[in-house]
Amino acid sequence: MPEPDTEQKSRHELPGMSFFQHLEELRRRIIYSIVAVAVAFFAGWWKAERIFAFMQAPIITALRAHKLDEKLVYTNPTDPFNMYMKVGLIAGLFIASPFILYQVWAFIAPGLYRNERRYILPFMVSTVGLFLAGGAFGYKMVYPAALDFLIGYGAQFQPMITIGEYTSLFLTIIVGMGIVFEMPILIFFLALFGIVSAGWMWRNLRYSILVIFIIAAIITPTTDILNMCIFAAPMVALYVLSIGVAWLVHPKRRRARAAKAKAQA
After folding, report:
1. CA–CA separation, 255 vs 251, rounded Å?
2. What is the spatial distance between Cα 213 and Cα 200, in angstroms, rounded to a whole number?
3. Which of 93, 101, 104, 177 lies closest to 137, judged by CA?
4. Residues 4-38: pLDDT tens digits?
5. Is the dihedral of CA 75, 78, 82, 83 positive or negative?
6. How much is the pLDDT for 95?
7. What pTM did the predictor assign?
């Protein structure tokens, strides 16, 4: 159990909140986030054509490499409009993500120690940075390799790739890799509230690697082992990094650092 004196003196001196006050605070943060996404959506929709040109570059390169027609198709007159709407929404989520992350931090910050509240900037930078790194890894490494394999595997057929199907596949890979790279942030919250610990993660390392490869096999769009390993390798590295994160933010370590700081004061 935490020491009451250390706990009380180390936190911001805010009045206690009831369960319904927490729900009201959560509702307010969610409303702010929805408004931010709505505003950012229009900015993304305005540049949706340019964004989609960037999105379709990998498939154009793969089709050109296999000497195939380099133009995507659509089967319904509403498909381009719906596709640009989806692109605008995803772009809006990216644009509004720093503000949304700030709302998440503002909601959980009262539960942190005083000296830990200054970590808001590293939290936001690492969260956005990891997601962008995952998306960039998927765009530069995973997605081109998957497209080259899939198109080469069906070389005896004439592909008719629709813009809707391609957009869904692109977002699945790129957003999926971005979410996968958020593993240290997920472990940060789980360890912060004492749900997992660094010791538990290290003891279950072999089982975690097995689960990671199973997940990689599920989310990879191809059936070859090489692409599965491309997915799994960064996940294993992030898991090892997450062990260090869990060690730093686990309640036992936080209380030990607070007690040490109190003793040195």
Report:
1. 6
2. 19
3. 177
4. 444 444 444 444 566 677 788 888 889 988 999 89
5. positive
6. 86
7. 0.73
